[in-house]
Amino acid sequence: MSGVKRRYLLRESDRKEFLRRFSENFGVDYKDLFGLKPKVEVLDVSEGKIFVINDKPVLMEFKGVFMPTLVFEDLIHRLPKVVVDIGAVPHICNGADVMAPGVVRVEGEFREGDLVLVSDERHGKAIAITKALLGSREIKILKGGRVLKNLHHVGDSVWRVMIDAFQKRKS
């Protein structure tokens, strides 16, 4: 498992605190998504932590930001979304921030600092989790400049760790 420094289960008290924090941060009841007593593992990686709940890498924490992974569809589809044109996709998947000219449409309302899902216009696939540099109203009318800070994208080191660690389990 390349990139994983340490892997461990959370103790009962830490698990309860983590799940409470998860429910509070994302406005959902963890029991609805994971059941009453989910197993919570932590993967320490160089960038931060990946939280694995019931054998699925669903959340991560990096530089103080607690966010869903791109594979946690139950939560990422609750985030507001920005759809980008197909020309922006390779740049975003190489770690670039989202620029106003690449934005095709904004779905949902958000404020500066909120987490925003980015998807491509052709297939509607989630390609990045970002932090809004401006609110949704400003982004809709802006013609130039950076609008979303790329935090996690398809192909990044976290994505590769998740693929290495969890695709092998399925084989």
Total strands: 11
Number of helices: 6
H/E topology pattern: EHHEEEEHEHEEEEHEH
Helix-strand makeup class:
alpha+beta
Average pLDDT reading: 91
How would you explain this protein's 3D organization?
The protein is α+β, with helices and mostly antiparallel strands and 171 residues long. The chain has 2 domains: 4-69, Pre-PUA domain, domain 1 (Nuclear Transport Factor 2, Chain: A); 76-153, PUA domain (Archaeosine Trna-guanine Transglycosylase, Chain: A, domain 4). The protein has 6 helices and 11 strands. The chain has helices at 12-26, 30-34, 73-76, 89-92, 136-141, 157-170; strands spanning 4-9, 40-45, 48-53, 56-62, 65-68, 81-84, 98-99, 103-107, 115-120, 126-132, 146-153. The strands form 2 sheets. It has a 6-stranded mixed sheet with strand order 7-11-10-9-6-8. Strands 1-2-3-4-5 form a 5-stranded antiparallel sheet, covered by helices on one side. Strand 3 and strand 4 (56-62) form a beta hairpin. The protein is globular, with a radius of gyration of 16 Å. The two termini are 15 Å apart.
Please sum up the structure shown:
The chain has 171 residues and is an alpha+beta fold. It has two domains: 4-69, Pre-PUA domain, domain 1 (Nuclear Transport Factor 2, Chain: A, Roll); 76-153, Roll (Archaeosine Trna-guanine Transglycosylase, Chain: A, domain 4). The protein is built from six helices and eleven strands.
